[in-house]
Queue: 2 jobs
Job 1
Amino acid sequence: MVRAMANPRPTAPDVQRPQQKLELAKPAEPNGGTTSGVEDVALVERIAGGDDAAFEQLVERYQHRIFSFCARMLQDRQEAEDVAQDVFITLYKNAGEFRGESQFSTWLFRIAKNQTLNRIKYLERRGRSKKRSVDELADDGPGALADPQDVPADDRIADAQRAALVQEAIGTLAEDHRAVVVLRDMEDLSYEEISEITGLPIGTVKSRIHRGRSALARRLKRIFG
């Protein structure tokens, strides 16, 4: 899990990451709740001015979504923790560069998208791309945050296995298709938001989502029959 920073502000320019990680907590409301973009912008401005409390608020607000995105992209929990950590460090160090020309969430997801794709390329170059087992994927696949007390044991096992297989199938998509499918179908972002995050025309975004969904449907049909 991503663990909470005790002292998030770097003490020197060459300090790249804090000693203690961000804590991934279950969000009170899905997709960041009803927080307004105006509040986000105000917090970013405070971070740029050196306000650590504002940074902690934004971490609490977005850590779950960012970690989930990274996990679905990277298919590796430890790598996802590291990249999510780096995303928030980038936010902390570059808050002054946010101009409010897009939503803050869009800006943050753009950072996450770029860093996950860079990490995938890095791992591939070193032969360290990791395909995980169904049991490993079940821990953080879609639906993993459901309250286990609300679901019978047999159903929990079946749901976890199905979720793991779906997550594994998502991991077989090419990275450019995987990113847009996750942003659209898992994060429920609009085509316009995904266009801003990826830098692609909306038509290209829609085309990649369609192709990604088609490939995913074929894969799942082979799995589930």
Job 2
Amino acid sequence: MIVYGRNPVRELLRGRRRHAVTHVVATESVSREPWLRAVPIELAGAEAIERACGSSDHQGVCADAGPYPYSGAEEILAGPDPLIVALDELQDPHNLGAIARTAECAGASGVVICERRAAEVSPAVCKASAGAVEHLRIARVRNMVAFLERAQEVGFWCHGAASGGGVAYDAPDYSGGVVLVLGGEGRGLRRLVAERCDDLVSLPLIGKVGSLNVSAAAAVLVYEVLQQRALLDTET
């Protein structure tokens, strides 16, 4: 996998999770930036870097990163009071990257995605996440319903996001282990996934547009969880 862009490559090197990083290619001007001073660099022109990574959005640097190190679902479920974002057949890499960035910034335990009919971690996702995927645990599961069942078995509450859901987004108790479940673009949650959730929450829509982008909805829900937990901490 060729990771490109300043933030993705910088976080790739900081994260040190990928053991197959072979070399970094950069323009002469970018190679002089402080964060690259101790890194062996192959100098190249902008056009050569574009050919190497397949994108003109490389910002003068790319790196051969090797395969992405996915985590196991059980690993993400472990730990004290985890917050997990589960994405049901989300297909847009830019949405996956944006959600991963929000999840990492908010200190979420990880993101769970589907193995089939869904976006995977790609160079475009790395770029859209600004490198957050290099620090965030991401797991791929064959069956999202089975994953939610397993989460509930070990004490999680699973809250699905759905337009017209019967519960206001700020009504649930988000303490303890929480899985926020969001659907794919356009279709939303699949029926069996929605039925597996403990409840379906919705965001207020006051304007004329009928829905939020899934990455925007994820950001609102993740930070509602953080706000609730922060209030609980102050009360205790």
